[in-house]
Design goal:
Structural class: alpha+beta
Distance between the termini: 55 Å
CATH class of the largest domain: Mainly Alpha
Order of helices and strands: EHEEEEEEHHHHHHHHHEEEHEEHHHHH
CATH topology of the largest domain: hpI Integrase, Chain A
Number of helices: 16
Number of domains: 4
Strand order of the largest sheet: 1-2-3-4-7
Helix content: 40-55%
Number of strands: 12
Length: about 400
């Protein structure tokens, strides 16, 4: 196994292989970094305790710990070993007493608060207190079995959506428990467990429905339409292929007409920017004439110093669908319709992903729907091509020519 001075650069450059391998440090004897086939890099410390038993506990993941932090922990543990201690056993005994409820607080502080948005933090707390804590909270974190997780899911069969979300939270918790040494590696009891509920894609708003919807959104109320701050927000959501939060939280300070772009300092996926199309410019100019001195593009009608309310926006969306005679679809259906239009416009994939602010191809494609008219046209095109080739082959046979591949 390679022996070298561990540094941030060498560990970042370490590529995963078909089998796990170790990189040993020359600075602290016994300190190593294990690289898994999945690319996970774990700091470990190899030593023998006073009984001569070989130990190799994990110290933490590279990324969560820097090389210098890992060296500091390793040196501290080695000093304890020289005094007759066994830090691996001590940690195992301490962690063996941690319940799922107790680990949830550790997970929340070390992971949820650091990695997730406030809405996800609130959801995590709510789901744990409402569904998880009273069912598996008393169990020891290192002893929860797949059987117990399956029972947990079965007990929530009356609320499959809640079971789906809770299972996702538990799976993430147990994954962190493995990484932080509270469970043995590759023992996540949620692996392979499924629920009745699956994340459903919003149905696609059809083109004939879009005609009726836009007729309603574009006309003033006095002319049979529903033009308001909220219907303007819906049109902006279509124009920017945006999430609801990106439109309702949008500030004028982020809009740059001169450079034709809007910069969101934060979003679900971090900082993003999108170009201002001609359609979007017109809509933003309409918003500017109605916003007054509000810092928000779509201000709260009752308090312009605050953004528009989500509840009012969703109520306005439901009304728009009902008046337009359209079967209900959530507001996220706007983003699906916009992404499908982008994909079908012929722009390169990378450009389409930039317009929706998606970072992974598979996520972007999850928003793109197949439309029936396109499938019918494609079927006719394939049939015509096949018949043309067949006729050409018949002609060649009749004329005694060599068939063309």
């Amino acid at each position: 196994m390679p022996t070298l001075k561990l540094t941030k650069r060498t560990l970042e450059a370490a590529e995963p292989k078909s089998k796990p391998y170790e990189l040993r440090d020359t600075e602290v004897v016994g300190l190593l970094c294990k690289v898994s086939p999945a690319g996970r890099k774990t700091f470990m410390l190899q030593y023998r305790n006073y009984e001569g038993v070989k130990r190799k506990p994990a110290l933490g993941l590279f990324g969560d710990l820097t090389v210098e932090q890992a060296r500091t922990i390793a040196q501290k543990w080695l000093a304890e070993v020289r005094e007759g201690g066994d830090p691996s056993r001590t940690r195992a005994e301490r962690r063996a007493s941690v319940t799922v409820r107790e680990f949830e607080e550790i997970f929340y502080q070390r992971w949820t608060l650091v990695r997730n948005k406030k809405s996800t933090q609130k959801l995590h707390r709510y789901m744990f207190e409402k569904y998880i804590s009273n069912r598996v909270g008393y169990c020891k974190i290192d002893s929860v079995s797949k059987k117990e997780v399956k029972k947990f899911v079965d007990d929530l069969s009356f609320a499959p959506g809640m079971a789906y979300i809770s299972l996702g939270i538990l799976s993430s918790m147990f994954k962190r428990a493995e990484e932080w040494g509270y469970r043995a590696e590759d023992t996540n009891p949620c692996k392979g467990v499924t629920t009745l509920a699956k994340k459903k894609r919003p149905r696609l708003i059809r083109q004939e429905e879009m005609v009726r919807l836009m007729d309603y959104l574009e006309l003033p109320e006095g002319e049979g339409g529903g033009r308001s701050a909220y219907t303007l927000a819906m049109r902006l959501q279509f124009a920017f292929a945006a999430r609801v939060s990106e439109i309702l939280q949008l500030r004028w300070a982020w809009v740059d007409f001169e450079r034709r772009r809007v910069d969101w300092p934060d979003s679900k996926t971090g900082p993003i920017w999108k170009p201002i199309s001609k359609e979007a410019r017109t809509l933003l100019q309409l918003a500017a004439s109605a916003a007054g001195d509000s810092p928000f593009v779509i201000p709260n009608p009752n308090d312009p110093s605050r953004p528009a309310m989500y509840g009012a926006y969703h109520r306005a969306w439901r009304k728009a669908l009902a008046v337009s005679g359209i079967e209900h679809v959530g507001t996220h259906g706007i983003r699906h319709r916009a992404a499908t239009d982008i994909a079908n416009s012929g722009v390169p994939l990378k450009v389409g992903m930039a317009l929706t602010a998606h970072r992974r191809v598979e996520v972007f494609m999850g928003y793109v729907h197949l439309e029936e008219p396109m499938l019918y046209d494609a079927a006719d095109q394939v049939a015509e091509s096949r018949m043309a080739k067949l006729e050409a082959a018949r002609c060649n046979v009749t004329c005694g020519l060599r068939p063309v591949d």
